[in-house]
Design goal:
444 residues, mainly alpha, 17 helices
Length: 444
C-alpha cells in the first residue's frame, strides 16, 4: 500500500507556511529595488492593482490545482489532464525552482554574512557609503567566502525540508514568521521616526502616472509573481498538502494581503532611511547591502538595528527558500519515487553547485561575461513565471473546466461569493492580459 501523503497540521500552519513562502527577499530586497528603479509611488500603485486583479486569482487557481491533484506540480497537472504539453508546463516549474533557488540562496548568503559583520563590528559607527561599498565588493568578489555562506544557507534550507511538511516547513514557519513580524515593526518605527524620513514616505506613496510604461507594467507583473511565489508551482505544491475542508479563496486573500503589507512595511523601513541620509533610492540591488549599512552606521545604536535587519532578511529568505526547494523535492518524491531524504540531499547539492557560477559571476569571474544572477532572475521572473501563470489560468479555465473547479472549491460547504467573477477573469481576461503583457514586454 502507498504511504499516506503528508498534510498540514492546521490551517494556521498552512497560512504561516504559505505567507512565509511569499514573504522573502522579494519583499525586502527586490520590492524596494524595483520600485526605486520604476518611479516609486507609480510602481507601488500598479503593484497593488496587479495583486488584486491578477495575483489573487492566480493564487486561487494554483491552490486548487494542487489540492485536486494531490501531487507535485507535474503530477498534479497530469492527474487532471495527461498530455505532453502539461508535462512541459510542469517541468518549467521544476526548472524555475532550480534556477531561482540557485541565485536566491547566494543573495540570502550575503544577508547571513552581514549578520556577522554587524556582530563583529565590520561596519563601525560612521561608516560612509564608500566604505560600505568596499566591504560589499570585497565580499562578492571573493571567490570563496560568499560560496561558504551560500552553502550554510542551503544547509539550513535542506535541514527544514528534510523534516517534512508538518514537522519541518510548518513547524519552522510558525516559529519564524512571528519573529519576522516583530523585527519589521521595530525597524519600521525606527526608520519613520528619523528626521527627514517623510520625504521617503512621500516618494514611496505618491504616484506619478507619467512614469508608467509597458516596461513598468511588466516589471510590476514579474514582481507580483515573484513576491507571491506564483507561476512555478510553489503555492500549487503547498496546496497539495491541504485538506478538502480548507477555504481556498479565503486563504489566498489572507496570504496575498500579508505579503503586500510586508512589502509596504519594508518600503517604509528602507525609503525613509535612504532619504533621511540623502542617498539615492534607485541604485538597484546594492541598496540593501551598501546603502543601508551606511544608514545604520550614522544612526544611534546602528549596529543593533543593522544586526536586527539582517536577521530579519535571513529569516524571510529561509521561509521562502524552503518552498522553492519543496517544489523540486516534491517532484522527485511523487514522480520518481525517491524518499524525502535522498531528494533533499541530491537536489540540495545540485542547487548548491548551480549557485557557484552565480556567486563567481558577481565578482567578475564569468563565462563569456554572463552575469548568471541577472540572467537567471530575468528568465524566471520575466518569462517562466508569467508564462507559468498564463498556462495555469488556461488550464483551470479551459482544460480542467471552470464549473469543475468551482465545484472543487465549493465542496464541503466552502463559500466563494465572487466565484463567477473569478471564473470570468480566469477564463477570458487573464489569458489575454498575461499574453499581451508577456509579448509586448518582450517586443518593447
Ligand atoms: N516569494 C519569495 C520572495 O518574495 C520567493 C519565492 C519563493 C518564489 N517561492 C517562489 C518566487 C516561487 C517565485 C516562485 O522572496
Amino acid at each position: 500500500m502507498e504511504k499516506q501523503r503528508e498534510q498540514w497540521g492546521s490551517r494556521m500552519g498552512f497560512v504561516f507556511a504559505a505567507a512565509g513562502s511569499a514573504i522573502g527577499l522579494g519583499n525586502i530586497w527586490r520590492f524596494p529595488t524595483v520600485a526605486g528603479r520604476n518611479g516609486g509611488g507609480a510602481f507601488v500603485l500598479l503593484y497593488l492593482l496587479i495583486i488584486m486583479a491578477i495575483g489573487i486569482p492566480v493564487m486561487i487557481s494554483e491552490l486548487s490545482v494542487g489540492r485536486k491533484g494531490q501531487k507535485s506540480i507535474v503530477g498534479s497537472f497530469l492527474s487532471i489532464k495527461n498530455s505532453p504539453l502539461w508535462f512541459l508546463v510542469g517541468m518549467m516549474g521544476v526548472m524555475s525552482g532550480f534556477l531561482i533557488l540557485s541565485f536566491y540562496s547566494v543573495i540570502a548568503g550575503w544577508g547571513v554574512s552581514y549578520i556577522f559583520n554587524f556582530l563583529t563590528g565590520t561596519f563601525a559607527a560612521g561608516v560612509t557609503p564608500d566604505e560600505a561599498a568596499t566591504v560589499f565588493e570585497g565580499l562578492v568578489s571573493n571567490p570563496v567566502t560568499p560560496i561558504f555562506w551560500h552553502l550554510i544557507f542551503m544547509g539550513l534550507t535542506g535541514f527544514i525540508v528534510f523534516k517534512g511538511i508538518a514537522g519541518g516547513i510548518e513547524k519552522y514557519s510558525k516559529l519564524l514568521m512571528p519573529a519576522l513580524f516583530v523585527l519589521l515593526v521595530i525597524l519600521a518605527i525606527r526608520a519613520i521616526t528619523l528626521p527627514g524620513a517623510m520625504e521617503g514616505v512621500v516618494w514611496f506613496l505618491r504616484p506619478d502616472i507619467s512614469e508608467i510604461s509597458i516596461q513598468t507594467v511588466l516589471a510590476s507583473l514579474g514582481q507580483v509573481f515573484f513576491s507571491l511565489s506564483l507561476g512555478m508551482g510553489a503555492i500549487l505544491t503547498y496546496g497539495s498538502y491541504l485538506s478538502k475542508k480548507e477555504d481556498i479563496p479565503g486563504n489566498a486573500l489572507i496570504i496575498s494581503l500579508a505579503d503586500l503589507s510586508i512589502a509596504i512595511l519594508a518600503g517604509f523601513i528602507i525609503m525613509p532611511a535612504v532619504f533621511a541620509f540623502g542617498l539615492e533610492p534607485s541604485v538597484g540591488p546594492s541598496l540593501i547591502f551598501i546603502t543601508l549599512p551606511s544608514v545604520f552606521g550614522s544612526m544611534y545604536m546602528g549596529n543593533v538595528f543593522g544586526f536586527l535587519f539582517f536577521v530579519l532578511l535571513s529569516i524571510a529568505a529561509l521561509t521562502s527558500s524552503i518552498s522553492l526547494l519543496e517544489v523540486v523535492v516534491a517532484y522527485f518524491i511523487d514522480e520518481k519515487k525517491w524518499d524525502r531524504k535522498k531528494a533533499v540531499v541530491v537536489i540540495g547539492a545540485v542547487i548548491f553547485l548551480l549557485g557557484i557560477p552565480v556567486s563567481l559571476s558577481q565578482g567578475g569571474i564569468t563565462i563569456a561575461n554572463i552575469d548568471f544572477l541577472d540572467v537567471f532572475d530575468t528568465i524566471t521572473s520575466k518569462l517562466f513565471l508569467p508564462l507559468g501563470g498564463l498556462m495555469t489560468v488556461i488550464f483551470v479555465g479551459w482544460v480542467w473546466g471552470g464549473q469543475n473547479v468551482l465545484a472543487h472549491i465549493r465542496q464541503e460547504g466552502v463559500k466563494f461569493k465572487l466565484g463567477s467573477a473569478w471564473l470570468f477573469l480566469v477564463k477570458f481576461i487573464l489569458p489575454l492580459v498575461l499574453a499581451y503583457i508577456l509579448i509586448s514586454g518582450f517586443l518593447g
